[in-house]
Request: fold
Amino acid sequence: MLASVAVIGAVTLSTGATAHADDFSEKKPLLKGSTTASYYWDDASGRNGDTGLPASGKPMQKGLAASPSWPLLTEGYVIYKGKKEPFFVGDRGPGVPSNRGIMLDLDAKTFASLTGGKFNSSSLTVDGVGGQGHIKIDYVITKWGPGVGKKNHPVAFSTGAWSRKDARPATPPVVTAEEKTEKKDERPETPAAPAQVAEKAPGKAPAQTSAQASERDKAPKAELAAAVTTRETESNGVGGLALISALALLSGGMFLARGRIRKAFDR
Reply:
C-alpha cells in the first residue's frame, strides 16, 4: 500500500513467516467481530492500481490480507454465508475506505472463493460476481502478530494505531457450549434380545406373558388331578361292588347254615 508503511512493516517482521494452518478454525479465538471487507491484489506488476509488494515483504498470495490496525502476521479466518477462509495480515490497508467502516482488504483469490467468483489473473479482479467489491464478513482472530498494531477490534488507518505497540490485547471471548464443535459419538447399536427378535419376526407367535405362562402350567396339573379323581372314583366303585357281593355271599351262607341246623334238631 504505502511505501513508508512497507518499510516499517518489513522491519517489525520476524524471518519465519506464517501462512495459515489447515486446522485454523480449531484454534482458540482471541477476538471475534464483523466488518465490511473489500479485495485487492498487489503483485508489484503496476496493473490495476497496484502499489507494489505488500508491507510485510511477503509475496502476494491467497490468504494474505491488509488491515488498517492489526499487527502484521496476525492470523485468523473470515466467514461469509457459511464459508470459511483463513488469512494472515501481510499488508496495511484499506486507507481512506477504513474511515467508512471497511476494515479488511482480502486478497482477490480469497474473495473469489468466498463469493463463488473467479480470479482474473489479467485484470487482477474477480469475475462472476456482478462487479461486487464489498461483502459483510465475520472475522475470528486466532493469533496476534509480534509487531506494532492494535490487538483489538480494527480502527481506521488514519488513527495511526498500526504504528503503536499494544501491550493490552483484547480479552478473548468466552466460547459457549453451543459454539463448541463436538464430534458425534458413533456407538454400535445394541442387538435386540432373543425375546424381542421373536416378537418382531414375521410368522412367529408372540412371546407369552407371565400370566399366560402360569395358566399354561396350571392346565396339565388340573388334567392330572381330574384323572386321579376319576380313577379313585372308579376304584372306589369296584371296591364297593366287591364288598356288596361278599356280604351277599356271607348272608346266603348264614341262611343255609341256619336251615341245616334246624333239620338237625328236627331229627
Q: What stands out?
A: The first strand starts at residue 31 and ends at 40. Confidence is low (pLDDT under 50) at residues 1-21, 195-206, 224-251, 253-267.
